[in-house]
Design brief:
The structure is a single chain. 23% of the residues lie in helices and 34% in strands. The protein is an alpha+beta fold. It has 3 domains: 4-97; 99-184, ATPase, nucleotide binding domain (Nucleotidyltransferase, domain 5), CATH 3.30.420; 234-364, Mog1/PsbP, alpha/beta/alpha sandwich (Protein Transport Mog1p, Chain A, 3-Layer(aba) Sandwich). Helix 3 (77-89) links the parallel strand 6 and strand 7. Helix 2 packs across helix 3.
Amino acid sequence: MRRVVTVIEAGPVGVHRAGAESGPVPDELAQTALECIDDQFAIVDDHFVTVEDLWTRVLGTGHARDAVVVHPTWWTPNRVTRLRDIATTCGIGRVVSRADALGADATGASWTVIEISTDLVSVTHNGGVPQSWTRGGHTEEAVVDAVCTAVGDTRDVVLDVPDDVPGGRELARALTRRVRCRHASPVDVLQRAVTDTPAREPERRPRKVTVGVAAVAIMGMCTTLAAHERPTDTVTTGLVEGRVAVQIPRGWRVERVTDDAGSPRLQVFSPSGTDPVIHITQSPVGAGDVADTLRYALEQAPAGVFVDFDPDDRIADRPAITYREVRAHREVRWAVVVDGPVRIAIGCQGREFHAACSAAVASAHAAS
């Protein structure tokens, strides 16, 4: 006797239920939950609520024992961990990526899943680390070329296009003209796989990423998709954290810093220990001129901490606000750029602005 499973799709655009409980979660609630998943608090009906409480409302189901939560494969590990913890609180025992769900239905030993999202297209081979490319600022042909190169000669290719992804169907048609693939939905695969014995969760291969780092590898062969020409030929990895995506050298270690002098940030370290440290911070763009707002904030620090402020500089052929942060044990050269609603600061700790830092500035952009 088969039982009906409730599949909850969390992202990339909305939150939807299918199965024993069907239908979309109210748009405003779902959008707020997705937009604030990396935050501590959200505003719902003009009231502050914790993001955990908000997601508990979103995931809550009367059929938790038979429920599965599915999330985009390119989500950051800390984001997935938070989702998994909240799902456990709701009594939901299974949380899987879209690629893992679709890979469980593969016809052979080798498979590839292409996921189309609003801002990204990702390619995952055999449950490994996904490669991702941004859609914004690039032609459809360039995106398709990069995806085709990544797919290579894989025979079992699955195309995952959620119905609510803007422009998703058009991009899917362009891909199917170049890639031999089949369309599939994680919802259909999971519901088809469920019997009286819960389907085994696909075996997870270790992902070589530090907590807080998005596992989206962008290979050097796809440099034609960069928003600017890269100052280095180093193979890079796309780091997605919160509302920001940026390219960093592959193999560099990433840590989150919240308890020392300066703003909370990510620090990116070279394995050799000889190259500079890259610092990454983000904040919303508020009212008023960005340069004036930043200058005022820096002036509140003790004299001599922030120097050489230049509101009209250029880094990696991109307009940037630059300054130096001078502290007892480090000196960081900062470049601040704006992309839509997000202010992104890239710091380079070292004696000069290293090529890896310039590449990070060139690639930094807002991401959903």
